[in-house]
Amino acid sequence: MDLKVLSQSGGCASSGCGSSTDRLTHLPEAIRAKVNNHPCFSEDAHHHYARMHVAVAPACNIQCHYCNRKYDCSNESRPGVVSELLTPDQAVKKVLAVAANIPQMTVLGIAGPGDPLANPERTLETFRQLSEKAPDIRLCVSTNGLALPAVAEELCKHNIEHVTITINCVDPDVGAKIYPWIFWNNRRIKGRKAAEILIEQQQKGLEMLVERGVLVKVNSVLIPGVNDEHLKEVSRVVKAKGAFLHNVMPLIAEEEHGTFFGLMGQRGPTNAELQTLQDACAGDMAMMRHCRQCRADAVGMLGEDRGHEFTLDKIETMEIDYASAMARRAEVHAEIEANRAAQREQTGETFVSLSSLKRNLKPKSEPRPVLMAVATTGSGVINQHFGHAREFLVYEASAMDVRFIGARKVDLYCSGDTTCGDAETALQKTIRTLEGCEVVLCAKIGYEPWGQLEAAGIAPNGEHAMEPIEEAVAAIYREMAESGQLDRPKAEPQRMSA
Ligand code: CLF
Ligand code: SF4
């Protein structure tokens, strides 16, 4: 997305569209350099760069009502879940193997399956070795914040430039509904007092990191009826303390996960509730909307998991020459940057054109915004078959800009013989997941899904295969506006899936 054009248009800035690159133009060069290839801290980077997590941290010092670290399933993707727990030495070996084989992997995060800072020796030893052996990899850690003030100084010594703190509340009364206990100074503390200590440590840790120049992202889990309204206050407070980005994520709570919230039937938010809250918080600070709620051993682009290619037995057999790998990685990164620059130039022209669209239309006919879903495997282009998509990226096009709204996961509609019997169900589920979207863009699509999408009021479009996403979305929006389609209200929305 062209930075200058968008900031002039006021579209992104006024709608607070998150970590989009327009916000980065105001930042000092040193900070822009830190986020440019971090797939979580920069929305644009997530189309091009990958991350990986190593699961070296088994213990946790608090209990959240949405967590059960015992649960594992190869289809499950959510924080805390892992297949193999690693020692620091194993983790380092795995990181070097992944970095050599997936050169677009730029960030190593430690995010669990417990709390990384409740396992400081294992976490810091992993970082220590990696900062020596793989200086081209960014190091990142995610924590509940309880132990953060105690290790903040140490983290800075290990060259950690990105830290995520999960902050679900700044009010202990709200916290008492989310955290049944914490383990603090060798004692288990329960109820409101526990939440009070946790909040105090989180805020202190945030301040310490900001003072030391670390970029802090705050993750918050949106729990309807518990902290939904309160998260606006959380956003305001953490922004005032210097957090770089706020990531409001939906609660995942299913009975089969065995979590307290899952068992008691606490529901997660709908797509619409999540978006409304993200928009409300965006008035206060940059919002992240592209989080995929990764496993604690995730490997690959956000939304994909290639962990099965790098299990312990497989990496044992890999011989890694990291000096050569680093040279190859630098070449790949340079290619990616050249492509990104070319895409920015192309998309910049599109936004000038969208702005002129608004001027050319009669005031009474200003076109309404439209949601469009996109099937992509990355690189910022439309390059995936509809039936192969495991998630769709949702964009909102308006007369002034195109903004990213979020990713929606779906079951694989077409994966060969094994799913054929379920195809209709999977397709129907996908269509429900795309609720609110009026167009779906993909590289290709079969006859059957085409018909069912159309019947559901979602226009399939395969005409923009291999084009940059935002440019294609803008082009379709312009066609819809010019043909008068946007003067009419959109088709009746389908029933929302919870
Ligand atoms: Fe990992 Fe987290 Fe670092 Fe990213 S994930 S430790 S900041 S490298 Fe990213 Fe995954 Fe969302 Fe986390 S998409 S769950 S925000
Ligand atoms: Fe689970 Fe993380 Fe909460 Fe600990 S802090 S209970 S690992 S979600």
Description:
This protein is 38% helix and 16% strand. It has helices at residues 3-9, 11-15, 29-35, 88-101, 120-133, 148-157, 172-175, 191-211, 231-240, 260-264, 271-282, 312-316, 322-360, 417-420, 423-433, 447-455, 469-482; strands spanning 50-53, 62-63, 105-110, 138-143, 162-166, 181-184, 187-190, 215-222, 245-250, 287-288, 299-301, 370-374, 391-397, 402-409, 437-441, 459-461. Helix 5 (120-133) links the parallel strand 3 (105-110) and strand 4. It starts with a helix and ends in a 16-residue tail after the last helix. Helix 6 (148-157) runs parallel beside helix 8 (191-211). It has 2 domains: 37-320, TIM Barrel; 324-487, Nucleotidyltransferase, domain 5. It has an 8-stranded mixed β-sheet, with helices on one face. The chain has a 5-stranded mixed β-sheet with strand order 14-13-12-15-16. The longest helix has 39 residues, at 322-360. The relative contact order is 0.12. It has 17 helices and 16 strands. The chain has 498 residues and is an alpha/beta fold. The site of FE(8)-S(7) cluster has 17 residues, from strand 1, strand 3, strand 4 and strand 5.
